[in-house]
Each structure stands twice: as structure tokens, then as C-alpha cells.
Design brief:
- The protein has one domain (2-177): Aminopeptidase, CATH 3.40.630.
- It has an eight-stranded mixed sheet, with helices on both faces.
- By secondary structure, it is of the alpha+beta class.
- The longest helix has 16 residues, at 104-119.
- It is built from five helices and eight strands, in the order ββααβββαβαββα.
- The chain is globular, with a radius of gyration of 17 Å.
- β1 (2-4) and β2 form a beta hairpin.
- It is 26% helix and 34% strand.
Length: 189
């Protein structure tokens, strides 16, 4: 499966992607970890996770590589997890620093949201971050996400207490922003 945006292609992850994925998961600046761990994910751990996935027609999660269309370079990954059939899912996005500020993250997020609402028919998509990652909050806001839960001082990172932030995007808000698309599912009363 691959999904195409203006700047990116989202494709199934591959074995050769796992080095970058491990690096990004270990980088405390690119992750919304609830504490300064430090994380110790290895490429081998990521490869094992990839290779031990079991086949299922009912996939409730996916991790997709973000590939910059212009250069073909791997820029990061997006994921959705905990998908409840036709109801909701949680998303995550991690982009390498070299692609920050290029629009790659926004385009990848929009492509994933299009898939989740248009193809999977979800009612709501949410994400979790913390108040120390203003770029993540701003990126989510650009796609229409609104803060729905703030857990005050629930995250300890780099010697500071930060707020945990859950943001949510409803189906009707997504389609209100994307007037070029038609919501084909009936409205819920």
C-alpha cells in the first residue's frame, strides 16, 4: 500500500527503514515520551517487530514510512494504532530534523488523515503529545485538531514538569476543512 500527497509518499515500512526509525524513537526531541528515559530502542528490535507481525485482514494499526517525493529520501514515519472499526484511532508522526519546517510533516499527516476518514470511515482521530513540543501541537492544530484533554504536570522531561496533551479531530471537522471531499457516511444523530 502507498498513499501519495503533494510532497510525500507514505508506503509500508521496510527492513532498511528500521535504522532511521530506531534513531528517531531514541531522540527525545522528536518523541513525546512521558519521561526522560533515555530510550534504548535498537535497529534489531525494530526489525524483530517488523518481521514477527502476523498477517491479518483486520489490521488495527500500521506504521508507514514517509518518503519525500522530490528526492526519494526517507523522512520519518506516521502511524495509526488502536483502530476501532469505524470509530477511532490514535495517530503519531515523527519526522527527521532535516525535514522540519519543509511541509513534509503536515503533508504526511494530511495524507494519513485522508486515509483514515475516507477509506476506514473513522469518526474520530486523536493524538497524544506534551506541552513541551509546541511544533507537534501547532502541526496538529493546522489539520484541525483541538485539545480535548490536558493532564497538568503529568510529564517529567529534561528536569521539568510538563502537561500531557490529548488532541482530537472529528470527522465532521475534517470534512468542513476539506470542502473538495464528500463525506459518504451517514451522519450520526
Amino acid at each position: 500500500m502507498s498513499l501519495e500527497g503533494k510532497l510525500v509518499v507514505l508506503r509500508e515500512e521496510r527492513r532498511e527503514d528500521q535504522r532511521l526509525f530506531a534513531d528517531l524513537r531514541n531522540d527525545l526531541d522528536t518523541q513525546a515520551w512521558p519521561k526522560g528515559l533515555p530510550p534504548d530502542y535498537t535497529e534489531e528490535m525494530h526489525i524483530k517487530r517488523l518481521e514477527t507481525r502476523e498477517f491479518s485482514y483486520e489490521r488495527d494499526s500500521a506504521r508507514l514510512a514517509i518518503v519525500e517525493k522530490a528526492s526519494g529520501r526517507l523522512a520519518g514515519f506516521v502511524s495509526y494504532t488502536g483502530e476501532q472499526h469505524r470509530l477511532s484511532a490514535s495517530i503519531g508522526i515523527v519526522v527527521s530534523r532535516e525535514f522540519w519546517g519543509t511541509g513534509i510533516g503536515f503533508d504526511a499527516q494530511e495524507v494519513l488523515l485522508g486515509f483514515l476518514f475516507d477509506e476506514l470511515g473513522l469518526r474520530e482521530v486523536h493524538l497524544w503529545t506534551h506541552s513541551g513540543i509546541s511544533k507537534a501541537i501547532a502541526l496538529a492544530g493546522r489539520s484541525g485538531f483541538v485539545e480535548c484533554i490536558r493532564l497538568r504536570e503529568s510529564v517529567f522531561k529534561n528536569g521539568r514538569l510538563l502537561d500531557g496533551v490529548v488532541m482530537s479531530l472529528l470527522r465532521e471537522d475534517y470534512y468542513a476543512r476539506h470542502t473538495d471531499k464528500v463525506d459518504r457516511l451517514p451522519k450520526v444523530a
